[in-house]
Amino acid sequence: MLPNEQVNEILNTAKQAIEKILQKDIHIAISEEYKSYDFIVMDSITKIIADYFKVSVKDLRSSSRYSHIAFPRQICMYIAIEEYKLTTTKVARYFKRNHATVIYGTKNIKDLMDVYPLICRQINDCIQLCKVLITLK
Questions:
Q1: pTM for this model (two decimals)
Q2: Which end of the chain has fewer CB atoms < 10 Å from its terminal CB, N or C?
């Protein structure tokens, strides 16, 4: 049998290890960025739009300014703000941009929809896809 001092030392070490592990797991489990409704919605919208325009999610979240990437990214921003009522700050944080960029992108999409019926139809198709595929709302 072990002396009481060794037993207490082992128990304290085990307790500290468990607390350390649980703190990490709890922190990961409730991380605001990855478990929030907003992040899940943004992630879903981005995946749907990436598939629709045949670009990668990585490209949409990158700093690329190529039009074949920037246009779908702006559509993601527009849908997140207009259909899911997310804030420009949260959308900007998701895309690693500032809120002014999100405001510009959203306005750009609105303007294009007013002028070009084909783009309006395309964006409405994307909105319908999001409504069907995102069941969180």
A1: 0.73
A2: N
